[in-house]
Amino acid sequence: MAVKIRLTRIGSHKKPFYRIVAASGEKAVQKKFIEILGTYNPCSNTAQFTIDKDKFDKWISLGAKPSDTVMSLVKKQQGK
Questions:
Q1: In this structure, are residues 65 and 24 in contact, taking their beta carbons and an 8 Å threshold?
Q2: CATH code (residue 31)
């Protein structure tokens, strides 16, 4: 089972809000996930991004592959 760290949309029409989740690579994007790692709100004045670094590091050490978008968000947060 390949685990991926990716975004899943939970926002309404024209107001996106995303959860960062660890999910099986075989499941559809909107289906069940294993664990919630954080959130991303691109619609606020300054895009709000929160992630539980301990959980993220745990999943990376277990072999989970983050999506390109999640990886770029994490790198931006580390740069601050």
A1: no
A2: 3.30.1320.10
pLDDT tens series, the chain, 80 aa: 688 999 998 888 989 999 999 988 775 656 678 899 999 999 888 889 999 999 999 999 999 999 999 999 999 887 76
Report how many domains make up the chain.
1
The DSSP annotation for the chain comes to: --EEEEEEE--BTTB--EEEEEEETTS-TTS--SEEEEEEETTSSS-EEEE-HHHHHHHHHTT-EE-HHHHHHHHHHHH-
Q: Which two tokens stand for residue 34?
A: 């294993």
